[in-house]
Amino acid sequence: MLSRGLHVVDGDPGSYSEYLDLIRSRGSIPLDLLPPIKDDKLVGKRFVEELGFRSARILRQFERIEDIDIEGISEPFVLKPTFSSSNHGVFLLRGTEKSGVFWDDQHQCERSIAEILQVLTQRSESSQYEDKRWIAEERIRGTNDDLVPHDVKFFAFHGQIGLVQLTEHRRPRNRVAFFDGEFRRLPFTPEESGIRVNPAILELHELPLPVHASELIEMAKEISSAMPTPFVRIDLYDTPDGPVFGEFTFTPGTFYYEDREVMSAALSKQLGSLWLQAETSLCDRDRGSHSARELLGVLSAGTPRRQVSVALRTGSFALEDRSAMAPEISAFRGSASDVVRDAMHDVPIRRFTSLSDVEIDTESPARYIVSERHDPLPLDFLVYPRDSDRVLVGLHGAEFRKTADLPKFQFVRSFLTRSESLLFLADSTLLQNDQLNLGWMAGTEGNHLLPRYARVVDLVQDSLAAKQSVLVGHSAGGFMSIAIGSMIAGSIAISVNGQTVLEKYEPWTLRQLRDAVFSGTETVESMIERYRSRLDLREILSNRLEGTRFAYFAHAEDPNTMTRLPMFPALAEYLGVDPSVGGRTEAGDVMSVCRWPTAENVPVHALPGTVLPFIDAVLGQSTSFEFGTTTRLSLV
Fold it and tell me: ATP-grasp domain: from which residue to which, for each copy (predicted)?
């Protein structure tokens, strides 16, 4: 029994040289032997967005079938599982004037929510996946006028494209065309192309080349190069605005079952050769002397699936053993494993190696440190459970590192005067460099911290049976509150003098961030461009969950928010609000220009002593707001 690539198979791994052998051995093992990559649509979206590419906007997401609520979605949408790479359980829907009734565009009929849920339940029960979630996402419009845009499927081998399949969805038979790795059309005859199709199911057709063919293939190559696996099929859509990501499929049924498409032995050998070259490339890049099959197989067998699943869902996409490449992190308060109590806050420390294993104490305050195997930065958070429908979440700003005692939990004293459950998040990005004062939860090059902490907020809210999370931050904490809040259904974020578009921030601070976190980029400009989905609220908000809202308060005379560093104007203009006076956005967010007094020699960028008046105003808990704004502030 030898490790081979992404799984374990019997026999000599060297004997597997054809694509069909490789893909069938990958798909024939139990799911718990799959590596830290799987067919999860949310994982795929997050990975691709990290690379700067567009995917369909998620309108709502649901952890369980019984949570599914699609009432009130105003645009045509797709309802589908995150765990399936087939069309089973996928609905193309739009609302009707009847409550609980939707129009199914694919089958041209009305469906009640009960009918829809019955189909989804059957799909869920027939699936072997443990982590079953569902999403409603925007309907992508293709360059054609068809209901479903053409699928462009790339058979990708770590930067090389071996085959492209273009599918036009029609009834009673889909039309397909095949191209080589440079988008050159393959001949129609099976003898020349190496491909036969079942004419009862598919029609081989001379479909026109996609409008954005060159952009599509370059996008597929870049995504494939970033994905630590020798093979993945990358499904893209061609739209009037350019390519949009669809999904990853690691064990595609195309050619696998030979019921629709059949691949010749010659083509199977050709693609198999690309697969083995990709494995060698992965090996050479990371471990030189080890065979990629041994390396990936050992990691696959040695990583608990629950840990893998959570690491993926929280933004860790590393497959290789990255311990040698992981950034060194500084010691912090409580980092030693024998420390069992946080002396500063007088609470016990509870340690875990997987977020999925964390059990929140619903009775007593505690600090939680989660050190996951594939995430070099710990998740570090402090929880005060209360009997409340809300969780109030505090996020911190800049820390003067010569005196800072990390981790920093912001607003603890003032929040303790309120009645909500409390959660405080520490930015472990700062642990990568003793000179780094600001991190904005950027994480590491390979691990995005913001979505990992979004999972923490979800976990705490669910554990405490709360109905809503309210995230609060000042300056950098304001950036993080809006960013994380955009990923949490029904949340409210409050930002006071927060940053928004980090490329407009202090150049030397951005250089520090590049040197400490993103050293793989050559310049600050290339860092901003590559990681815009982490460093620009305009980009982050373009993918926000439906129903998330925020209130952004800016001091009119603060140069670090309004003029010299135009954070408020940059976001206001993007959202269609007058940056000089503020107002309400179309989504119902508050952009408020106001003034508040500060102590002598205290900059106006600082809080007016406390953040509580802003919370009271946004939650409708005060009858007046003394800092002078005409904008209606309440978000409840």
Answer: 45-280
Pair 628, 592: CB distance under 8 Å: no
- Rounded distance between C-alpha atoms, residue 246 and residue 55, angstroms: 7
Model pLDDT, residue 514 = 95
Q: Which residue is listed with tokens 């990992």?
A: 452
332-370 pLDDT, tens digit per residue, is 999 999 999 999 999 999 999 888 789 999 999 999 999
What was the pLDDT predicted at 37?
47
How far apart, in Å, are the Cα atoms of 204 and each of 9, 181, 194, 211, 446? 35, 19, 13, 20, 41
8-state DSSP, 495? E
Angle, alpha carbons 222-223-229 (nearest 5°): 115
Cα of 43 vs its chain's centroid, Å? 6
Residue ranges of domains in the chain, CATH in brackets: 57-138 (3.30.1490), 145-283 (3.30.470.20), 354-366+386-619 (3.40.50.1820)
Q: 154-174, pLDDT tens digit by residue?
A: 999 989 999 999 999 887 788
pLDDT at 494: 98
Q: Are 488 and 548 in contact (CB under 8 A)?
A: yes
The H helix count followed by the E strand count for the chain is 17, 27
Q: How far is CA 118 from the centre of its chain?
A: 29
Residue written as token pair 């700003």: 397
d(CA 592, CA 493): 13
Local confidence band at 580 (pLDDT 50, 70, 90 cut-offs):
very high
Sheet strands (E) in 375-415: 379-384, 390-395
- CA dist 380 and 73 (Å) reads 36
SS (HEC) of 80-132: EECCCCCCCCCEEEEECCCCCEEEECCCCEEEEHHHHHHHHHHHHHCCCCCCC
Torsion of CA 106, 109, 115, 118, to 10 degrees: -30
Helix boundaries (H) for 247-350: 265-286, 292-302, 305-313
- Cα–Cα distance measured from residue 32 to residue 305, given in angstroms and rounded to the nearest whole number: 6
514 — phi, psi (to 5°)?
Answer: -65, -45
Q: Among candidates 557, 568, 540, 525, which has minimal Cα distance to 480? A: 540
Torsion angles phi and psi, residue 456, rounded to 5:
-65, -45
Interatomic CA distance for residues 79 and 67, integer angstroms? 13
